[in-house]
């Protein structure tokens, strides 16, 4: 039966394959962070790499001066049956087995350079390495970059802070076990690993202390105060390690032989002999494996709760993103029509007041149109000079005898022509509002966000229909103005005062009043005033009728038949053309694919955790 550690290993590998890894910078890193792990922390040259190699029993890590570990290495150990060949696999090149651990070392270096370049910079993106061997215990260790105090040439000035921040994103998680590695030949009070562990785990409940280089201490000194918990107490026992010497490394001394030498060292040591059964890399591996298994088991309920919550969130997002589109032409046509109806519903809500925007059309009628009518240049057009000019031209070679009827008609027709501008401007203003509402409605239609091609097609069809409605609106409002010019209201002029008056003479006989000067300024001023009164009457009429014409020709038509022609054309399209309209935004498709993969991962993780938990 698979161990809990092995199960967690597989879930972590799956998370990394999806780009989800710890550190808090990833939107889906919560599952990774919830899974218990062991982070190995230590200063540079603390012997951290040697501890890992001792636990594995293989020489496989890159070595050198300065920062060698520049990316987190997630090391997953899987115990196999005795006699089986040891091999390693990397998460970034699955199904390729490495049996030469020298090649493993090279691949770690090459994969590090692939992200960071051949520099001394660091990256939070982890490398996943799984090792299968009969000489290991089931365990997951995360090797983090060594803590440093100064930046060297080729490194960023912030490298010290960057490394510490990266390490803290791992060890700061409550589900992370801290393996704090410190060299015995340095004062424990100056240990970088212990200092950092104390900051994130002040009670020491999650910290395991490892003391390396015991064999390199000055003669006459020992590390018993630390190992026995007097110098710095932790909740878990300190473990001493004796690493291979540099000479042994240079001679490629076998790690299994090195383990045997380590056991002999503690067994024969006068200082540490009484602790021999609780010292060494083999004991450390078993201790960590047992504790990690218990740690995982204790956190299964909270992990399951998090997974269930994440599944709900992912399913909600999948509903928001929409399910994959069917390949059947009939289903595609149905989808397109449903999407068009969703857009049309939002568009009508804007017009009817359910959403903002439709009130701007009323603003055209209540503000823009009256203001435009008031600004018409009737004062200039009906000035005495222009009235005299128009009337004289209308009379021709023979002046009018009584009232200048032709002059009146010409003045009125000329004045009424000015109304065309505001009438057409009202049509254009409403057209602009309708186009803007189409754009807003497309943007607010969540279902359409998946399909940029269909968005463009609906926008083009809507704007084409609005252009036709505008043309019809222009014709109608101009026709209204022309109707006012084509037949004048006779009663208006009949009610005008007569210019010729009679007064009674003394003795009862009538006597004609003095003849009116028909070419004087007062005469032309009176004509201009009469025409102005008539034009004002027409202006009041048009102020009421123009909005009705615009609404009837443009707004009402937009509500009733905005996409009618588009529906007709869609019905004629075949499968390929329909599929092109449902061609989704590549970024959205990728988002859905990733979301579906994560959803599958979380569901599988929940089922597997449940099955293992029930058995136990």
Automatic annotation (TrEMBL):
PROSITE patterns in alphabetical order: G_DYNAMIN_1 (PS00410), G_DYNAMIN_2 (PS51718), GED (PS51388)
GO molecular function (one): microtubule binding
InterPro entries according to UniProt: Dynamin (IPR022812), Dynamin_GTPase (IPR001401), Dynamin_GTPase_CS (IPR019762), Dynamin_N (IPR045063), Dynamin_stalk (IPR000375), G_DYNAMIN_dom (IPR030381), GED (IPR003130), GED_dom (IPR020850)
Domain of life: Eukaryota
Record's subcellular location: Cytoplasm, Cytoskeleton, Phragmoplast
Record CDD domains: DLP_1
Keyword annotations: Cell cycle, Cell division, Cytoplasm, Cytoskeleton, GTP-binding, Hydrolase, Microtubule, Motor protein, Nucleotide-binding
Segments forming domain Dynamin-type G: 32-301
Segments forming domain GED: 524-616
Record GO cellular component, one term: phragmoplast
Pfam families linked: Dynamin_M (PF01031), Dynamin_N (PF00350), GED (PF02212)
Biological process according to GO: cell division
Cited SMART domains: DYNc, GED
Subunit structure: Forms homodimer and may homooligomerize and heterooligomerize to form the phragmoplastin complex. Binds to PHIP1.
Family of this protein: Belongs to the TRAFAC class dynamin-like GTPase superfamily. Dynamin/Fzo/YdjA family.
Record-given protein name: Dynamin-related protein 1E
Protein's organism: Anisodus tanguticus
């Amino acid at each position: 039966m698979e161990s809990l550690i092995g199960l967690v290993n597989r879930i972590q590998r799956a998370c990394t394959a999806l780009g989800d890894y710890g550190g808090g910078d990833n939107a889906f890193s919560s599952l990774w962070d919830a899974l218990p792990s062991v982070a190995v922390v230590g200063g540079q040259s603390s012997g951290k790499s040697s501890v890992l190699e001792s636990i594995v029993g293989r020489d496989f890590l890159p070595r050198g001066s300065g920062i060698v570990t520049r990316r987190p290495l997630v090391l997953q150990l899987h115990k196999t049956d005795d006699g089986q060949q040891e091999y390693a696999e990397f998460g970034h090149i699955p199904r390729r087995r490495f049996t030469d651990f020298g090649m493993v070392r090279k691949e770690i270096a090459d994969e590090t350079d692939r992200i960071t370049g051949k520099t001394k910079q660091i990256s939070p993106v982890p490398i996943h390495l799984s090792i299968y061997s009969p000489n290991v215990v089931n365990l997951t260790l995360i090797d983090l970059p060594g803590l440093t105090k100064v930046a060297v040439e080729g490194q960023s000035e912030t490298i010290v802070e960057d490394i510490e921040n990266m390490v803290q994103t791992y060890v700061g998680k409550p589900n992370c076990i801290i393996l704090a590695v410190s060299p015995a030949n340095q004062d424990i009070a100056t240990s970088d690993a212990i200092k950092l562990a104390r900051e994130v785990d002040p009670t020491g409940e999650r910290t395991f202390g490892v003391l390396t280089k015991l064999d390199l201490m000055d003669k006459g000194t020992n590390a018993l105060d630390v190992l026995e918990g007097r110098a710095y107490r932790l909740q878990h026992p300190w473990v001493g390690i004796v690493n291979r010497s540099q000479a042994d490394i240079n001679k490629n001394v076998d790690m299994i032989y090195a383990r045997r030498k380590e056991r002999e060292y503690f067994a024969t040591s006068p200082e540490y002999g009484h602790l021999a059964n609780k010292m060494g890399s083999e004991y450390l591996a078993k201790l960590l494996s047992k504790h990690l298994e218990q740690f995982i088991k204790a956190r299964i309920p909270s992990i399951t709760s998090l997974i269930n919550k994440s599944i709900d969130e992912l399913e909600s997002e999948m509903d928001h993103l929409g399910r994959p589109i069917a390949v059947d032409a009939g289903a595609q046509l149905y989808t397109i029509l449903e999407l068009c109806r969703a857009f049309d519903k939002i568009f009508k809500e804007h017009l009817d007041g359910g959403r903002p925007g439709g009130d701007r059309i009323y603003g055209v009628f209540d503000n823009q149109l009256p203001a435009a009518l008031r600004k018409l240049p009737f004062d200039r057009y009906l000035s005495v000079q222009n009235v005299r000019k128009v009337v004289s031209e209308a009379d021709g070679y023979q002046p009018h005898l009584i009232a200048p009827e032709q002059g009146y008609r010409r003045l009125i027709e000329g004045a009424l022509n000015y109304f065309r501008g505001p009438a057409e401007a009202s049509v254009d203003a409403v057209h602009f509002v309708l186009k803007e509402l189409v754009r807003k409605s497309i943007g607010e239609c969540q279902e359409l966000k998946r399909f940029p091609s269909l968005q463009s097609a609906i926008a083009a069809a809507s704007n084409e229909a609005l252009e036709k409605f505008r043309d019809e609106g222009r014709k109608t409002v101009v026709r209204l103005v022309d109707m006012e010019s084509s037949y004048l209201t006779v009663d208006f002029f009949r009610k005008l005062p007569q210019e010729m008056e009679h007064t009674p003479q003394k003795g009862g006989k009538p006597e004609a009043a003095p003849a009116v000067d028909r070419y004087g300024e007062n005469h032309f001023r009176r004509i201009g005033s009469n025409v102005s009164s008539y034009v004002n009457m027409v202006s009041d009429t048009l102020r009421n009728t123009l909005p009705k014409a615009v609404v009837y020709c443009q707004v009402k038509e937009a509500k009733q038949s905005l996409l009618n022609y588009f529906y007709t054309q869609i019905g004629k399209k075949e499968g390929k053309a329909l599929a092109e309209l449902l061609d989704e935004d590549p970024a959205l498709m990728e988002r859905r694919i990733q979301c579906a993969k994560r959803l599958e991962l979380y569901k599988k993780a929940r089922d597997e955790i449940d099955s293992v938990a029930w058995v136990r």
